[in-house]
Amino acid sequence: MTMQTIYLLIPLAPLLGALIAGLFGWAISRRAAHVVTIAGVGISFLLSAYVLKTLLSGGDSFNGSVYTWLTVAGLEFNVGFLVDRLSAMMMCVVTFVSLMVHVYTIGYMHEDPGYARFFSYISLFTFSMLMLVMSNNFVQLFFGWEAVGLVSYLLIGFWFKRPTAIFANMKAFLINRVGDFGFLLGIGLVLAHFGSLDYAEVFKAAPSVQEATITLFPGHAWSLMTVTCVLLFIGAMGKSAQFPLHVWLPDSMEGPTPISALIHAATMVTAGIFMVARMSPLFELSDAALNFILVIGSITALFMGLLGIIQNDIKRVVAYSTLSQLGYMTVALGASAYQAGVFHLMTHAFFKALLFLAAGSVIMGLHHDQDIRNMGGLRKYMPITWITSLIGSLALIGTPFLSGFYSKDSIIEAVHFSKLPAAGFAYFAVMAGVFVTAFYSFRMYFLVFHGKERFGKASHHGDHTDEEEATDHHHGLTPGQKPHESPWVITLPLVLLAIPSVIIGAVEIEPMLFGDFFSDAILISGNHEAMAKLGEVFRLHGGVTGMGTHAFITLPFWLALAGVALAWFFYLKRPDIPSAIRKAAGPLYSLMENKYYMDHLYINGFAAAGRGIGVIFWKLGDTILIDGLLVNGSAKVVEFGAGLVRRIQTGYLYHYAFAMIVGAIILLSWWLGGILPALR
Amino acid sequence: MSWTQLNLAVATPEIFLLVAALIVLLSDIFLNERNKSIAYGLTLAALAGTAYLLLQSAGQSPRPGFNGMFIADPLSQAAKFGMVIGVALMLVYGRSYARLRGIFRGELFALSLFALLGMMVMASGANFVTLYIGLELLSLSLYALVAMQRNNVHATEAAMKYFVLGALASGLLLYGMSMVYGATGALDIPTISQRITVHGANNLLAIFGLVFIVTGIGFKLGAVPFHMWVPDVYDGAPTLLTQLIGSAPKLAAFAFTFRLLAEALAGYKPDWSSMLTILAVLSLVVGNVAAIAQTRLKRMLAYSTISHMGFLLLGFMAGTRDGYAASFFYAMSYMLTAAASFGMIMLLSGKDFEADQIADFKGLAKRDPWFAAMMLIVMFSMAGIPVFVGFFAKFAVLKAVISTGAIWLAVLAVACSLIGAFYYLRVVKVMYFDEPENQAPIAAAPDSRILLSVNCLLLLLLGLLPDRLLTVLTEAVQRSMLP
Amino acid sequence: MTLALFYLFAAILVLAALRVVTARNPVHAALSLVLCFFTAAMLWMLIKAEFLAISLVLIYVGAVMVLFLFVVMMLDINFESLRKGFWRFFPVAGTVAAIMLGEMLLVLTSRYANLSAARLPEPAAGFNSAKALGKLLYTEYFLPFQLAAVLLLVGMIAAIALTHRQRKNTKFQDPADQVAVKAADRVVVLKMEAEKPAHAETDTTHTGEKA
């Protein structure tokens, strides 16, 4: 099997599974549906791992077209793959998490009527995501970008009978449109100024246009690269849920938990991060764009984390945590520490998927009760979920030697070394974020697994949103009922994800951050030296173990510890304090309760204004001008013409023959008329 | 003169097809009414064999034969392959339809094969005589086929009109050819082409003939104002023969036009280009506008054919390699689309019931969601909605037109397509939003169901991945053009 | 001399052709067509294509037109109704024809028409057109010749398929059936109650005639 066949097989195997499960789901059994899709993703994972191994042992990266889709005016639209270490790593992460989620789904969606459909969607998602990361050109990138967005839309609204789910998927779709608009404009600028959509060609030509400017409004010349990069980054903001386009992600928790883990934590939302890292040769050319990225990232990292503190829905806590962590990754990109961003992307994929799946396991154990106020003391009943959640939380807050520590501390340090103007603010935000992260993570952890058992109170039945089609399910436990540990198909992925959550950071930090792992994929210009300095410090401390031991005397560690301690104090020792604070900080609390009023702004501001304008256009433009004049007017003309032709089509043979003769004469006269002057 | 000079090998597919047609004809004598399936099987086998032989010669450079009367070049071989597919589709879709109407007979098979032979000769003729005889072979077979259902008044009337007008058109064509012969003293295409270049373009006699040749071509394609037969014949003929007339012969007409205009009369490109522009514009306007007023699906499709032929002519009008390739692509994709549309009508038709009204498709989505989706693909493709092959066919043609600088033509074509989208989408609307009048499930044989589905999905697939086919056809045109 | 003959025959040809469409009596029209063929044959003779001329006379005059005359005389076709409206359409049709004629003349008489280039070569001495034609047909024009044979075959198939295949609703006698019929099959005696109304049943008689 040649490498090219393998590259083709990697995305096609899940696609095939998706097609079989999706188109023939009605014909095949549930078992068959999950067998084919898991087999597809499994094959894809094994091959991805093989590809990564080949690349790491010195294999050449691949960049080539597989199929020319279309040629327009000398411009080729290709389906092509760029498989280097960056994409190979992404492929492994995507397929591994996807595989885990597939297995987990067997248990989680066990009773759902849309079983085959669900498997089809998540396999289709895997295909789309692989197309996105493997692409070697902007068109295919955009295809993957939109395809994952589409599948995400379908999955958020998977329980399409619930109005909240429909609202959530519509919201996700619309907000992403805003981002995509910028993204598409960015791609358009690239095409306009480079005349190509192929990564390699664009990157090669990029340095030569560094000084180029464009005039968007008369009198203001802007740097071309800055405009292009900011536009591209706006796309990333939509997909990776960065402030202010983040509002869709918490609502996307209306979807089933497995996809929250797969799409809204581990993979799709990181597409923006991946894209920026992939475009590093472009972003490196514009300090302005990098500053912009830093600011957006730090706002997201800190302020979204704060919101996590007051959430009571277990999935929403994890969702805000995801937002905050995406902010961290973005900050890393802004600091030109692309490696650190991608590294955090990878570690985050494992431990956040783990946390989501563990949350799902808890939700199942409690019969679809998602309110953490109704939990407590679960560690006795769900030991595996408990242990794995603890590992995930520890990794998330950056406990030394766990994976999250290595990636997050690298980011913090990289920001520290960055010389961009926005780096100061960013440094503060990520540092404060450490405390916030530890606080909300352990707040949730303590409320769920420790303390008094608060489940089984009849009064909670059905008074909150929940995840099942609300028909024959009872929600929450009845009094006296005890939660139980989930079946092996659920716990196995938890355990398998816990392993990398612990070790992957220590194993990979050296090659990925300071080795030449990304040498062929990421380019950092000479005047951004955060990564270089980071490497010096890393070696100074004595590598992996040194960095871990050194951590105990650094600020982030103590901040994290303080966060954990405070959470313990507030929620286990003195549960009365939080409610007291809530009462005391009334306006601040309601600001956070309403998510900084972003939703209000969008729904009552932009959306309402948009609809107002729409109504005006509809009344004026549509009804009067277009309907009245253009459509009905032209329809009348066409109708008249049609009637005329129908009258000519008499059915008489001699009329037809006559028409033909007349036609010949018209042709003859036309031609004669043209040459008549020359005849005489 | 010897056998080797004849170079019979270039016509292997045609010779095989002729022998096979004769075998089918003879086999019919020995088969009673119940065993006609054997003849049917033989016919399909003949088509498969022809297709196989055509594939054998794929990719070879142009090979003349029969003393320059015949040429097997990539263009003709590709067109022939498409024609074989078209005829095979007709036979499979129409099997039970023909049986229920008592025309599942040996003549149907034999005449279809002869018609195919005629088309293949039209594609490969390198001499006016060969081309003309090929055309007559096709036409005569079609006249007889349309009239085959004798107690059907509409069919006989259609055959009658088709025959008389066809004879008139072929007379005009022959008259034109004789003028060109008179002017150049040659009948074979390379010589004509060469003499025209030598004598220059102001040879009035030849251009005079050209007018009549264009007339004949216009009739064959069904371009306005030589289109009058199209609605009546499409509507009157049994649907399976409408499919035969509406699909494969368009490819033959394309190749025929290519031979006559792009090769033989290439020297008069400005002249025929302007004539084709008139035909194309009239076809686009009249075809699309008239289709709106139709309530009968077959009649609507007839007018839609006219408009599609307008597009095909636009590609020719451009007169460039890319223009011809675009036309070729258009003809190929239209062949598949038309076959699928008539296949759908036959799929829904029963013993005494023709699903040839648009109203017969009411609520199809509720009766049979799968085939409603298939019909949706067909209609979308015809309307030229992106990702379906029809869009790329139109796109390629428009590109060629724009490259010649005739922006107004491209704008007009797009405007006409927009009008056209109305009536295609009306079918979709009827299928999805109206209540079904007929609740009966669709009773069709599995072979036609499967093939029809494959055919429709192919329209989607070719729309998603159009480039390979377009490249193949462009290359075929490139390699077949006279130096 | 040849030129004079050409104009003579050409004039007859055009006049005869006019008669074909204008004659009231269909037999006259058919006979005018025969005259057309004859004069056309003469034109071919003038350019020394004697084989074609003879074939035209033999096939079209001898076979086709005779058959056509039979049809005209034996079938009761109302030619008056076919010709109805002839004069009504004549002005329009005549105008169109006149335009056509005018344009053709314009082109053909133009000096750019270059008709002289289309002059036929003078045949060599001892040239035998039948022989030359035969030779051409079997060598150079081998393919069209064969295809023409196929075309004729298709014509035969078409003719047989359209006329000779058994029709469903034609009435014809089957002598074998008629001979085999028995008295008992012909007459059926029915017992009838006197009070019953008369329209109850009708006699069925079997005559051997099939429907």
UniProtKB/TrEMBL annotation, chain A:
Keywords annotated in UniProt: Membrane, Transmembrane, Transmembrane helix
GO cellular component, one term: endomembrane system
Domain of life: Bacteria
Ranges where the NADH-Ubiquinone oxidoreductase (complex I) chain 5 N-terminal domain occurs: 69-119
GO biological process, any: electron transport coupled proton transport
Compartmental location: Endomembrane system; Membrane
TM ranges: 6-28, 35-52, 86-106, 118-135, 141-160, 181-200, 220-238, 259-277, 289-310, 317-339, 345-366, 386-406, 426-448, 488-507, 551-572, 653-672
Pfam assignment, any one: Proton_antipo_N
PANTHER family listed in its UniProt record: NADH-UBIQUINONE OXIDOREDUCTASE CHAIN 5 (PTHR42829:SF2)
One GO MF term: NADH dehydrogenase (ubiquinone) activity
Broad class of where this protein is predominantly found: membrane
Annotated region (Disordered), positions in chain: 459-484
Gene3D superfamilies, per database record: 1.20.5.2700
Membrane topology, from the record: Multi-pass membrane protein
Record's protein name: NADH-quinone oxidoreductase subunit L
Chain ranges of the NADH:quinone oxidoreductase/Mrp antiporter transmembrane domain: 135-420
From TrEMBL, chain B:
GO function term, MF aspect, one: quinone binding
Matches recorded under Pfam families: Proton_antipo_M
UniProt-listed InterPro entries: NADH-Q_OxRdtase_suN/2, ND/Mrp_TM
GO biological process, one term: ATP synthesis coupled electron transport
Residue ranges of domain NADH:quinone oxidoreductase/Mrp antiporter transmembrane in the record: 127-419
CC per GO annotation: endomembrane system; plasma membrane
Recorded catalytic activity of this chain's protein: a quinone + NADH + 5 H(+)(in) = a quinol + NAD(+) + 4 H(+)(out)
Family membership: Belongs to the complex I subunit 2 family.
Biological role stated in the UniProt entry: NDH-1 shuttles electrons from NADH, via FMN and iron-sulfur (Fe-S) centers, to quinones in the respiratory chain. The immediate electron acceptor for the enzyme in this species is believed to be ubiquinone. Couples the redox reaction to proton translocation (for every two electrons transferred, four hydrogen ions are translocated across the cytoplasmic membrane), and thus conserves the redox energy in a proton gradient.
Designated name of the protein: NADH-quinone oxidoreductase subunit N
Species, as recorded: Formivibrio citricus
Taxonomic path: Bacteria, Pseudomonadati, Pseudomonadota, Betaproteobacteria, Neisseriales
Record gene name: nuoN
TrEMBL record, chain C:
Entry's EC annotation: 7.1.1.-
Protein name, UniProt field: NADH-quinone oxidoreductase subunit J
Task performed by this protein: NDH-1 shuttles electrons from NADH, via FMN and iron-sulfur (Fe-S) centers, to quinones in the respiratory chain. Couples the redox reaction to proton translocation (for every two electrons transferred, four hydrogen ions are translocated across the cytoplasmic membrane), and thus conserves the redox energy in a proton gradient.
InterPro entries linked: NADH_UbQ/plastoQ_OxRdtase_su6, Nuo/plastoQ_OxRdtase_6_NuoJ
Annotated keywords: Cell membrane, Membrane, NAD, Quinone, Transmembrane, Transmembrane helix
Lineage: Bacteria, Pseudomonadati, Pseudomonadota, Betaproteobacteria, Neisseriales
Subcellular location: Cell membrane
Pfam families membership: Oxidored_q3 (PF00499)
Entry's transmembrane regions: 6-22, 29-47, 53-75, 87-108, 141-162
Organism: Formivibrio citricus
